[in-house]
Design brief:
The complex is a heterodimer of chains A (533) and B (137). With 533 residues, chain A is α+β, with helices and mostly antiparallel strands. Chain A has nine helices and 30 strands. In chain A, the strands form six sheets. In chain A, strands 1-8-5-2-3-4-7-6 form an eight-stranded mixed sheet. In chain A, strands 10-9-12-29-27 form a five-stranded antiparallel sheet. In chain A, strands 11, 13, 26, 28 and 30 form a five-stranded antiparallel sheet that branches. In chain A, α1 runs antiparallel to α2. The chains are: A alpha+beta (533), B alpha+beta (137).
């Protein structure tokens, strides 16, 4: 399987690599900090210091080894024993590895008191001038553990700062008591030609003062241009789930089946990682080989008479992808702005094909009688929150009782939580479209008109902490139904990089080749990993 | 004053107190020969078995160590003291004012000295830790 695919654009929008990164996420930071701190404190072996122990306690020191230090001679012995005032031990092999926490140091005076008989070393206890052991001290251990934990925390912050240069707008829902991050919108639309629609499920949204209230924020260095924002409100039976695909088509899910087999490119089973939305996840396994594209092979039992299937994934991008795309951007150095201008003049097809050639979106292949057929791809959902996304697959060309799917992306570009397939027929579910009846920016300026239509008027958020607050009228709910609300948005964004220096044009030009960026990221990872091992 | 209803202040106070309790400086044990004990270590504590004597004005002559027994030990601190460990105890000779023993029977001489690097590192570590936690408290 190669990563070179031919992109099939329907009406959708495109996709593009990079994606955002974190932003200020106090809860996430706290959790990460707490976890790292707990790990460090749990695993840290402690700090020690040399401690004098009284002579009578030597026999109870419970150390495996004993250093017998004379003025002129030194011996390391084991199997020590004290009998009739004489300490004896057997000399250890020269290559014995001894940790300082497992040894007692005895200082003998005079040196002549040390007697050696073959491998037996003996010393009168009366000639032991001092005995020392290396003991863990709580104070220093706590200090170092606290320091390492704090260091780990700031490392996380540093990583965030390093990777947060490329992102997209974040969307928050208000519920009256909480403001919850729902996810990111039009991720990867980093150039005007690849502006795209996005459909984000607002899971925690609930009416506040009889209004739905959301916030669209810019929390990274980029210029975010939102063209449209509206809600799609579905009232549906309780036993179905609603998902909207990237084309804006509504799908109902009633019977999502887990794969009967799931393996990665190396044949490792991913059954537990991809089953259910839980803590078990899958990110590509990286080996020092030529593999650039990870392939997840999925097999599903196909019900009789099923002609279509809906492939559902819950996934996000890795920070690594964001970080490396930022690295690529920075390589343009002083010509970064020029590169941005060129990209904005490229065709949509060119940019989409490049990203597919690098394995940035998640390509979907179907095994048919004629061989593997490229079906479609999932847009990058961003690295902050999992996004549940769906692609409808026509099974006309599948003649077997199994539906075999391959998901292909660049190694370490995607982070998966779940994959499943629903063969049920879509039931009719039409949304109520609700435009914002009021929207203001962080200064209180009215911006509603900018978001009402897909036109040339954009809500432009060029700075950190720009925030738009949108209010929507809550449509009356159909009795006996469950409600699902999606944010339909459209837009693009331009990452702002502080790139400097002379660009490496030879390398950058080579990035046009399929898989070159993927190779670049893998090589970088292997080099980074090797430096630390 | 700590308001018992304010966990934030209590947390910060507890943190600072912990730091103060733990941060008394970082010391390391330095082993030297008896001839190389620094002059500013003008008090020596001679240990032999369970006994010890505090001495000063020491000298070495003919492979013997001589020192004057300290009459006043109130000025002794870990900053001006070194320790000698002697065995067996019978070699220590104590007169009215003078303690003497063979140099060969000094098994070890050491003193504790503050490690500026470790102490500075520890202060930095605590500063970083407290600063980090204050963000969330």
């Amino acid at each position: 399987m190669t990563g070179t695919t031919h992109f099939r654009d329907k009406t959708d929008s495109g996709l593009k690599f990079n994606r955002n990164t974190m932003r200020r996420f106090p809860v996430i930071y706290q959790v990460v900090s707490a976890v790292l701190s707990a790990l460090v404190i749990t695993l840290f072996p402690g700090c020690g210091t040399t401690t004098h122990i009284p002579g009578p306690e030597i026999a109870y020191a419970e150390k495996t080894y004993c250093n017998i230090n004379g003025d002129k001679h030194k011996y390391t012995v084991t199997a020590t024993n004290i009998s009739e005032g004489i300490l004896t031990g057997i000399t250890t092999a020269a290559d014995t590895r001894i940790t300082k926490g497992n040894v007692i140091d005895l200082f003998i005076a005079p040196d002549s008191a040390i007697q050696v008989n073959g491998s037996i070393v003996s010393v009168p206890v009366a000639n032991i001038a001092k005995a020392e052991i290396y003991r863990i001290t709580a104070g220093r251990s706590i200090t170092v553990a606290a320091g390492v934990a704090a260091g780990a925390f700031w490392t996380v912050i540093l990583i965030v700062l390093l990777t947060k240069g490329i992102s997209c707008p974040f969307v928050y829902s208000e519920s009256g008591t909480d403001i919850t991050l729902e996810g990111e919108i039009y991720s990867g639309a980093t150039a005007l030609p690849v502006e795209r629609d996005d459909y984000l499920r607002l899971k925690t949204l609930s009416p506040v003062d009889e209004r739905y209230r959301i916030r669209i924020t810019n929390e990274v260095k980029e210029i975010q241009n939102t063209n449209l924002a509206e809600l799609l409100v579905y009232d549906h039976p309780e036993d179905v789930e609603i998902l909207v695909d990237k084309y804006g088509n509504t799908h109902t899910l009633k019977d999502i089946r887990e794969p009967v087999s799931a393996t990665n490119a190396y044949g490792k089973s991913l059954a537990s990682e991809l089953a259910g939305c839980d803590d078990k996840r899958y990110i590509s396994e990286i080996r020092n080989d030529d593999l650039l594209f990870d392939t997840i092979s999925l097999s599903f039992d196909r019900p009789l008479n099923s002609n279509t299937a809906k492939l559902v994934i819950s996934a996000k991008n890795t920070m690594w992808l964001d970080y490396m795309f930022g690295r690529l951007s920075d390589m343009f150095g002083s010509r970064y702005d020029e590169w941005v201008r060129i990209r904005n003049k490229r065709s949509r097809e060119y940019l989409l094909q490049w990203s597919l050639d690098q394995g940035i979106p998640l390509a979907v292949y179907l095994e048919t009688q004629a061989g593997l057929e490229f079906i479609d791809y999932y847009n990058v959902p961003g690295p902050v929150k999992d996004k549940r996304d769906i692609i409808e697959i026509d099974l006309e060309a599948v003649t077997t009782e199994r539906v075999n799917i391959k998901l292909v992306s660049g190694v370490m570009f995607w982070d998966f939580d779940f994959a499943g397939m629903d063969f049920s027929e879509d039931i009719k579910a039409d949304p109520v479209r609700v435009s914002p009846d009021n929207a203001v920016d962080e200064t209180g300026r009215e911006i509603t008109s900018l978001l009402l239509h897909d036109d040339d008027m954009y809500l432009v958020q060029p700075s950190l902490n720009n925030e738009a607050r949108l209010c929507f009228t809550v449509p009356p709910q159909v009795p006996g139904t469950e409600r699902s609300v999606f944010l339909h948005s459209k837009g693009n964004y331009q990452p702002l990089r502080d790139a400097r220096g002379k660009p490496d044009m030879e390398l950058l030009v080579s990035m046009r080749l399929p898989g070159k960026f993927t190779r670049f990221t893998k090589d970088h990872f292997l080099s980074y990993y090797a430096d630390r091992n | 004053m700590i308001n018992p209803l304010c966990p934030r202040k209590a947390g910060i106070g507890g943190l600072l107190l912990t730091a103060c309790l733990l941060m008394t400086g970082c010391y390391s044990l330095k082993t030297v020969s008896v001839q190389d004990i620094p002059k500013e270590r003008n008090y020596l504590v001679v240990h032999a078995g369970d006994n010890y004597w505090t001495v000063e004005d020491h000298a070495i002559s003919d492979s013997y160590f001589y020192a004057r027994l300290s009459a006043d030990t109130s000025l002794v601190s870990h900053k001006n003291t070194a320790h000698l460990y002697v065995a067996p105890i019978e070699v220590v000779s104590v007169g009215d004012q003078i303690l003497s023993l063979p140099v060969a029977n000094i098994g070890k001489a050491d003193y504790r000295e503050i490690s500026i690097g470790q102490t500075a590192g520890a202060i930095a570590v605590w500063f970083l830790t407290i600063w980090t936690l204050l963000i969330f408290l």
